[in-house]
Amino acid sequence: GLQKLIPWQELGIEIVGTAKNGQEALDFVRNNVVDIVISDVTMPLLSGIEFIRQAQSEDIYFHFLILSGYQEFDYVKEGLRMGADNYLIKPVDKVELIETLEKIIKELNSEAEQLQTQSVLFDYLLQGWTHDDIDYIELRKMIKRYGYRLTDRPYTALIIAYPMEAEEALIEFIADQKQGMYYKQNDDQSYTVIFDGSK
Question: Judging by DSSP bridges, how do beta strands 63-68 and 36-40 pair with one another?
């Protein structure tokens, strides 16, 4: 019904896949890049909420809309908590759905522009994390968006005081460890190094 209801090409987007249940949807997003997901709450094997929660736990992020025939507040609350762009009660209002999609498309275009300045944003992101301005979940989400991979091991941020003339030796040391994830000289002549693990 949704495939026929929405003028996808006019919106500048296309349907890349459909799924009959939550598990099938999860398998699809594991193997395909997806920008937007429209998911029913009630599905076999995995509910819409369970499917999205599992995808996010695997660092698979996309914009998503939740559809449901139920109006229980718990569904709305959980969907919004996970970052749903909208929660639509069935039967779906075509105008509201199209407006939501247009808003998402605008956000995706904006995100694409931001990725052009990826190195600056990535630098800013990690600085924010080391200064407790952003939390770890947001760090994981943004790093995934930039194409980097985080393991399940902990990360250690070290602030190292080095004399300026030792910078080259420090860079060589970090490279030799094959473990440094991020390196930056701070304003106070110290260096921030984030390591994968705590070795």
Answer: parallel
Cβ-contact 196, 178 below 8 angstroms:
no
Structure tokens at 7: 């003028």
Q: pLDDT band for 118, please (50, 70, 90 cuts).
A: low
Say which amino acid occupies 94: K
Number of Cβ atoms within 10 Å of the Cβ of 29: 20
Alpha-carbon gap, residue 38 to 101, rounded angstroms: 10
pLDDT averaged over the chain? Answer: 78
Long-range contacts for 38-42 (Cβ within 8 Å, ≥24 apart)?
A: 38/2, 38/64, 38/65, 38/67, 39/64, 39/65, 39/66, 39/67, 40/66, 40/67, 40/68, 41/66, 41/67, 41/68, 41/70, 41/75, 41/79, 42/68, 42/69, 42/70
* Token reading at 11: 């919106």
Q: Report which residue type is found at 153.
A: R
